[in-house]
Amino acid sequence: ARERDVFHYGTFPTDFKWSVSTSAYQIEGGWNADGKGESIWDRFSHTPNKIANNETGDVACDSYHKVAEDVSLVKMLGVQQYRFSISWSRIFPNGNTSNLNQAGVDYYNAMIDSLISAGVEPVVTLYHWDLPQALEDNGGLLNDVIVELFNDYANFCFKTFGNRVKFWITFNEPYVVTWLGYGIGVFAPGVYSPADAPYIAAHNIIRAHAKAYRTYEKLYKGTQGGRVGMTMSTEWAEPKGQSAVEVDYEATDRVMQFFLGWYMHPIFVNGDYPDVMKEYVAQRSAAQGEVTSRLPSFTQSEKNLILGSADFFGLNHYTTNLAFETFSPDRINDVSYYEDREASTEQDFTWPAAASSWLKEVPWGIRRLLSWIKKEFNNPPILITENGISEEGTSQELNDWWRKEYFHGYINEVLKAIKLDDVNVIGYTAWSFMDNFEWAEGYSERFGMHWVNFTDPERPRFRKQSVDCYMEIMERSFPE
Ligand code: GBH
Known about the structure:
Elements: H1 3-6, E1 17-21, H2 24-27, H3 40-45, H4 67-77, E2 81-85, H5 88-91, H6 102-117, E3 121-127, H7 133-136, H8 146-161, E4 167-172, H9 174-181, H10 197-219, H11 221-224, E5 227-233, E6 236-239, H12 246-270, H13 275-287, H14 300-306, E7 312-316, E8 320-325, H15 337-340, E9 343-346, H16 363-376, E10 382-386, H17 401-419, E11 425-431, E12 450-452, E13 461-463, H18 466-476
Parallel strand pairs: 1-2, 1-11, 2-3, 3-4, 4-5, 5-7, 6-8, 7-10, 10-11
Antiparallel strand pairs: 8-9, 12-13
Ligand GBH binds next to α9.
């Protein structure tokens, strides 16, 4: 028998939070309904050849018109939380707080109130990649006015929804925004600028996050009693091959530091980027003839604001990679965030593959990752904010046995991390509550626990079998 069938390690803590998640652009539709402003994902998906089959999120799951239906399905799952995101341009069409769209506020109020009446806590992400286009026209995340603008938007949300929302996530997966959005441009806003832009965007995101965190701490925490954090996309990395040598172990550490340490080292360790990252980017910038490092630096007062600016560590995790050293003198003039790592990754061909090319099912990776986070970032409370698997297909398939296997395997490894490695995991969130717009892949990859018919104008939802599996696990854990 496989190890996970034999060793179950009992049950989850009684106050453990179970949850399912979505994000605004991926489910809402209503892209220009009732005064909503254009976002960078509206613009990007309306540009030919950016998205598979030129699909868009114009209608998506039509969740903008389906509050009652969505909430009743969430309630049926018996989860404690539902994680969704607010579309910034639905509330502030131009991104700044001088122009409010009341219909947007009404929509999120209805969502939050319905969840609470259903006994489900809302977990709200403020930024899941859909920047108001008007702000992008002014430099987007590369212009440091974004720090103030984001803070104003966050402040409004805390003030308006914070009497009912007790878990806030400022940014979802900044790595994706900075590298895919501003580095190689395969995601909105489609900027190709791999040498500097990712570092500048990240610098602004970290400062914007910290500023919003301090706003909450100062104005709302005492009365509202909520928690604020940021969510990371994290692929675990192992050295490649049984003959991996010292340099590959070091390369593996750099992959993790450039991916995760980039954001979380400043917040949880010392207010600043990881040493290895500062060293590599500075050294390569110098070799490339630059006077200063392409990695910006924080002032002392910024460091003070950033250090400690999270009440929990938000973790999105799907898969594992194998890392190896790539240094070579003739690659020094390849000026790019990616090359700065002097490391690369691949996956093992024996790992079971999902529909998404980057996603292999490697359950043990999550346990190792959780232990690494505990050690590296001073044992923070970890809220797993996404974990899941995709299939392809347009015809209805409700027997998603691969998703049952994935949840069973990964969730059991989370339990081992809690029970055997003493990692402080406070909750687990499955991605996704229902099939939705999978970014550049359009509707060709389905991550949902509910199957959505995207060719029916009503967008009906149908329960897949993984729902039953997830409910069993939530209720009974993995009894001996
Ligand atoms: C999450 O990203 C997102 O938060 C969520 O919105 C999304 O739907 C979900 O996962 C599933 O993808 O094809 O080489 O360009 C997970 C991290 C980062 C994984 C971008 C896929 C694309 C790699 N994702 N990556 S590539």
